[in-house]
Amino acid sequence: MTTSPSTPLLSRRNVAAQLAALALSSAVLPLQAQAQTPTALRISSPALPDDWHGKMWTVFKEQLDKTAPGEFDVRINLNGTLFKQGTEPTAMARGNLELATVSAFDLAKLLPAFSIFTAGYILRDPQHLQKVLGGPIGDELYKSVADKLDITILSPLYLGTRQVNLREARSVKTPADLKGLKLRMPGSKEWLFLGEALGATPTPLAFGEVYLGLKTGTIDGQDNPLPTLRAAKFYEVTKQIVLTSHLVDSLFISVANKTWNALSTPQKQKLKAAAVAAAQYNNENRLKEESQLVDYFKQQGLSVTTPDLDAFHRSVQQAYLKSEYAKQWPPGLLERINATK
Length: 341
Ligand code: KDO
Prior knowledge:
- This protein is of the alpha/beta class.
- It has a single domain (37-339), classed as D-Maltodextrin-Binding Protein, domain 2 (3-Layer(aba) Sandwich).
- It has 14 helices and 9 strands.
- It has helices at 6-36, 52-67, 88-93, 104-110, 126-133, 136-149, 189-197, 210-216, 226-231, 257-261, 265-299, 309-321, 324-327, 333-339, and strands spanning 39-44, 72-77, 99-103, 151-166, 182-185, 201-204, 221-225, 240-256, 303-305.
- Strands 1, 2, 3, 4, 5, 6, 7, 8 and 9 form a 9-stranded mixed sheet that branches.
- Helix 7 (189-197) links the parallel strand 5 and strand 6 (201-204).
- Helix 2 (52-67) packs antiparallel against helix 11 (265-299).
- The longest helix is centred in the last third of the chain and has 35 residues, at 265-299.
- The radius of gyration is 26 Å and the shape is globular.
- It binds 3-deoxy-alpha-D-manno-oct-2-ulopyranosonic acid.
- The site of 3-deoxy-alpha-D-manno-oct-2-ulopyranosonic acid has 10 residues, from loops.
């Protein structure tokens, strides 16, 4: 058989071409595979769509769509439609949910050290919150959350400073003036204790039922930050806001470890950056709105009053320090929080 002199060259070219094609396909395949099966990120939150910590999830999604196109399938479920308020950490630990905002109250149920952030008048203001939860104290606590609860905290955020909001106006100077008042709180014992520490009769009710509760009078009041009063329209069914500023409240953007551990390092960085951007969007807007809302509520006909804040501080702090909660705070943690400037 005669072979053409060009055959070896051709076949060498063929082999080289095949090898190049192979290398290309193996480099491209994982990307194609990723593009075909984006990681599902279901978000569950009780936030209202018109509240900043509801809107921030769109910021999160848009940022991920830009930085990691086709890698994630972000689905935002607000109004507590996917999981009930407060059940998100368990759903994430069980692998039934990927992302949520969880509160210190939710975490305290499972990790008692966290109850320090459920106690009234510990965090002084939004800046203090940011320094404590965004610094070494936060990092240490997030590590135990990851180890014990199987969820990873991506970013803390400022939910706002909680104020007491009443259906009927009354004179409130000290906690004694709230005696017998049915103050709605979310339904866990940590929340109910806060209501009790304020001097009221705490009444558990889910967030979604508060408007009607205020309208019909099954509750006499509720506590929430001013932007939430606006977004949930509680000002339509209440007559007074008492500026107790009893809790500088936070939430934590969290991801299930099952999801987190399956991500590549660049994906983890992108997810965290998107959470930080979302939190920042929430914080900036919430702070700005908080500073404007007193005037707005007055225009809506509500009376906005300031009680004897020293009396509230003293009474609430004593209630916590005497409680079972304080016994579970790691030694020195309160002092470190107080010393954070
Ligand atoms: C509420 O039910 O009062 C509360 O403010 C508690 C928070 O921890 C958080 O769940 C919040 O509701 C929801 O995100 C709705 O704003």
